[in-house]
């Protein structure tokens, strides 16, 4: 395993605030991750969902002992 270069992943994260038309409701933050190699984008309704996705992606790469995976 030491003869292989370390794995790495690259993501572009975008964050934006969606404002509610109803003044009684709070604004919410939305997120997307983009793989700059493929251009594929995936949306998320919360920061927690982004973190969960990244944990699964990174753990999956380690479990398989493979290099970078694409979104």
Throw out a few tags for this protein.
71 residues; alpha+beta; three-stranded antiparallel β-sheet; 3 strands; 25% helix; 25% strand
Which percent band covers the strand fraction? 25-35%
Question: In total, how many beta strands?
Answer: 3
Taken from the alpha-carbon principal axes, the silhouette is: elongated
Q: CA-to-CA gap between the ends? A: 24 Å
| Biggest sheet statistics | 3 strands, antiparallel
Mean pLDDT: 85
Q: What are the secondary-structure elements, in order, as H or E? A: EEEH
Helix content: 25-40%
Q: Give me the secondary-structure category.
A: alpha+beta
As for the number of domains, it is 1
Sheet with most strands: strand arrangement: 1-2-3
- Low-pLDDT runs of 5+ residues are none
Radius of gyration: 16 Å
Our count of helices gives 1
Short description:
The protein is of the alpha+beta class. 25% of the residues lie in helices and 25% in strands.
